[in-house]
Amino acid sequence: MTAGNVSTPRDQLGLQGEQLAERFLRSRGCRVIARRFRTAAGELDLVVREGATLVFVEVKTQSDRTLLDPCERVTRGKQRRLGRAARSFVARHRCENLPCRFDVVSVVIDDSGATSIEHHPDAFSPPAWS
Prior knowledge:
Blueprint: H1 9-27, E1 31-38, E2 43-50, E3 53-62, H2 76-93, E4 100-109, E5 115-124
Parallel strand pairs: 3-4
Antiparallel strand pairs: 1-2, 2-3, 4-5
């Protein structure tokens, strides 16, 4: 999803959440390597470097704090797809020797526009990820 093809309010909310998550991670010293990296297996919302560690970030944006916990919204199937997409990224960018982890960033944007961001480092390890 790029700014040019955001078609629904849900898409707009998701894009806004990814932008806020990126700004949040940058403010904590992370360097953004890729945004919305697409593979046949799926899409990585953000790929950042935190020191020597390559971090694959799944951004979960919602407008209601009462919804399911963001980490629980990353199902086993989604974890599998993210793992395959991450393997594609690592192979394409030849960074097999870097330590990697999978984070979730939760962004809540309420009706008034107020935002809340929570970072969940090392939120999961995809099945068969070594």
